[in-house]
């Protein structure tokens, strides 16, 4: 196991952490299901290899009612029966937004249209902000080698 290089940069700049937490609070107040947000956080964090966020996402998903099957299989959500249409739309959007550079059209209309069938514009805004803030935390934690379980 590698060791932490430095504290999380947002912790070193408290105003930055407050701004990140303000976005998190805004998302939480937008009415999107907490389990869905936690599964999205978990999936983006798996893609980005962020140990603390994977651990936190799994914990939060369980707290919000995700089954053990869902938590264990979120990386293979397409191949399992344990996710609703709404969860599948959110997970597909999460993967696309997290992997923006992997395709010439990172969020194709077909993917967007499926998400828009499940979420209104306010909910889509919250989901997109949630994915962005998750990716921000992943991009602060991974390069500084933050460790899961040390909070």
Textual characterization of the structure:
- By secondary structure, the protein is mostly helical.
- The protein has one domain: AhpD-like (Up-down Bundle).
- The chain has eight helices and no strands.
- The mean pLDDT is 95.
- This is Alkylhydroperoxidase AhpD family core domain-containing protein.
- InterPro entries: AhpD-like, AhpD_core, CMD-like.
- Residues 14-95 form the Carboxymuconolactone decarboxylase-like domain.
- One of its GO terms (molecular function) is peroxiredoxin activity.
Set down the secondary structure blueprint:
Elements: H1 9-12, H2 14-28, H3 34-48, H4 51-63, H5 68-73, H6 85-98, H7 109-118, H8 121-141
Helix pairs in contact: 2-8, 3-4, 3-6, 3-8, 6-7, 6-8
């Amino acid at each position: 196991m590698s060791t932490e290089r430095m504290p999380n940069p947002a912790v070193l700049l408290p105003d930055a952490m407050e701004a990140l937490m303000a976005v998190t609070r805004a998302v939480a107040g937008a009415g999107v299901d907490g389990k869905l947000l936690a599964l999205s956080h978990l999936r983006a964090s798996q893609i980005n290899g962020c140990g603390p966020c994977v651990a936190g996402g799994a914990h939060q998903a369980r707290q919000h009612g995700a089954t053990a099957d869902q938590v264990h299989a979120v990386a293979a959500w397409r191949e399992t029966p344990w996710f609703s249409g709404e969860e599948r739309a959110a997970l597909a959007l999460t993967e696309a937004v997290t992997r923006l550079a992997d395709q010439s059209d990172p969020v194709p209309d077909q993917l967007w249209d499926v998400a828009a069938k499940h979420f209104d514009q306010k909910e889509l805004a919250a989901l997109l902000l949630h994915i962005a803030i998750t990716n921000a935390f992943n991009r602060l934690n991974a390069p500084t080698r933050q460790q899961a379980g040390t909070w």
